[in-house]
Design goal:
One of its GO terms (molecular function) is flavin adenine dinucleotide binding. One of its GO terms (cellular component) is plasma membrane. It holds the Pfam family Acyl-CoA_dh_N. This is Acyl-CoA dehydrogenase. It contains 13 helices and 8 strands. By secondary structure, it is an alpha+beta fold. It has 3 domains: 109 residues, Butyryl-Coa Dehydrogenase, subunit A, domain 1; 121 residues, Butyryl-CoA Dehydrogenase, subunit A, domain 2, CATH 2.40.110; 112 residues, Butyryl-CoA Dehydrogenase, subunit A, domain 3 (Up-down Bundle). The strands form 2 sheets. Strands 1-4-5-8 form a 4-stranded mixed sheet. Strands 2-3-7-6 form a 4-stranded antiparallel sheet, with no helix packed on it. Helix 11 runs antiparallel to helix 13. The longest helix has 23 residues. The radius of gyration is 22 Å and the shape is globular. Bound molecules: flavin-adenine dinucleotide. Flavin-adenine dinucleotide binds next to strand 1 and helix 13.
């Protein structure tokens, strides 16, 4: 690992400045305000503009095929976060697109991937079910053979951004009698159809997500991703991506911990609170401790970092609200909100951050079991 400071070449500096100016133009105050109100973490105009300018393709492709160099990828990740770009839907889209690339037929790749890179198609995740999401392999949504296609029935919880996506990447059960990891088959299911219902759901931090219902949905076999009953192999790759357990290069340029973009928001809140807080020793101590914790969390790799980031948000945000007093409990854009409501927003965001993509308890179990070798937890 190389810890030296990175010196940007003139070309890379020009790339950064151009990207910054582009983001300033498309991620307007109005876009940010609308995103906060809708809770969608997505803006179609911004997404299409990034696709048209070739940024989505450059982020998706390897460097040898026209993708960003490691240094530009780092600049890209940082600038997207700094601009407060509504962004989460690209994460799920890229994750599913990689599964299509790896396990889908050539015909399906040709149909889906160019439109993903142009921004036109977005893809969402249909994993979690009403009866429980932590154990994703326990899937009750059924897919049954019907001639050369399949009939799907079931429902999924928290299908985030289904309202903005062309397809959902759906886990189905194709063999209820088989052991659960050998019973799954993955499909890409078109969402804009009468037999799929999308019901909106709001979380405590104001995020918009959905419950989705599938009633006798007919899907052609070419929309199957991977082998019949081989869905776990497909899913494992996508889950590694989401959990942040993918291999990293040793150039030190990749994002160290998944979801560290939330800690960037927390860092902005700490700055705002520091500018307003009374100059007292206890306040200096608490802000200093907050900054040390954030630095440590952002430097923690893999699934350890996933836990550390959510945990630091949960620990620091109440401290910030405590420092500023009751006015800090008013939300963003509310008259009289301390530090423009920044700490209150992080406080509400910290809960779901420790849930989506896997809860902190489940991650801690995974760390204990797989990283520390402590064996399976007793239930
Ligand atoms: C804002 C938001 C967006 C989301 N977006 C998506 C999405 O786009 N697509 C999607 O498919 N899902 C999505 N999810 C769902 C998310 O992945 C699940 O909520 C999560 O995996 C937990 O599943 P659950 O809610 O069913 O809780 P459960 O699995 O029912 O867990 C309930 C409680 O039990 C604990 N628990 C469960 N199992 C264990 C265990 N083995 N050991 C210790 N404790 C355990 C959990 O930590 C939790 O506290 C989203 C969730 C949120 C909040």
């Amino acid at each position: 690992m190389d810890f030296s400071t990175v010196t940007l070449s003139d070309e890379d500096r020009a790339f950064r400045d151009e990207l910054r100016a582009f983001l300033r133009e498309i991620v307007t105050d109005e876009v940010i305000r609308r995103d906060r109100q809708s809770g969608e973490n997505f803006d179609e105009g911004v997404h299409l503009a990034l696709g048209k300018a070739g940024y989505l393709a450059a982020d998706f492709k390897p460097e040898g095929e026209g993708g960003f160099s490691p240094i530009r990828k780092r600049i890209w990740d940082l600038e997207i976060g700094r601009a407060h770009t509504p962004w989460f839907h690209w994460g799920t889209t890229a994750m599913v697109a990689r599964a299509v690339q790896q396990f889908g037929s050539t015909e399906l790749q040709d149909e889906v991937l160019p439109r993903v890179l142009s921004g036109e198609y977005r893809l969402c995740l249909g994993y979690t079910e009403p009866e429980g999401g932590s154990d994703v392999a326990t899937c009750k949504t059924r897919a049954v053979r019907d001639g050369d296609g399949w009939i799907i029935n079931g429902s999924k919880m928290f299908t985030s951004n289904a309202q903005n996506a062309a397809y959902v990447f759906l886990i189905t059960n194709t063999d209820p009698a088989a052991p659960k990891h050998q019973s799954l088959t993955m499909f890409l299911v078109l969402l804009d159809r009468p037999d799929v219902e999308i019901q909106p759901l709001r979380t405590v931090d104001g995020d918009r997500t959905n419950i989705t219902y599938y009633s006798d949905v007919r899907v052609e076999d070419r929309y199957r991703i991977g082998e019949v009953n081989g869905g776990w192999t497909v899913l494992r790759e996508a889950l590694n991506d989401e959990h942040g357990t993918v291999e990293r290069g040793d150039d030190g340029l990749q994002k160290i911990a998944t979801m560290s973009e939330h800690v960037t928001l927390l860092a902005e809140a700490v700055d705002k609170v520091a500018a307003l807080a009374p100059d007292e020793e206890s306040v200096r101590f608490r802000l200093g401790r907050a900054i040390a914790r954030m630095e440590a969390a952002m430097s923690t790799p893999d699934m350890f970092g996933r836990v550390a980031n959510a945990q630091v948000m949960r620990e620091v945000s109440p401290d910030l609200m405590d420092i500023l007093g009751t006015a800090s409990s008013l939300p963003v854009d509310e008259k009289g909100a301390a530090a423009a409501g920044a700490a209150e927003y992080i406080f509400r965001l910290a809960g779901p951050t420790g849930i989506y993509g896997g809860t902190l308890e489940v991650f801690r179990n995974m760390i204990a079991q797989h990283a520390l070798g402590l064996g399976r937890p007793r239930t």
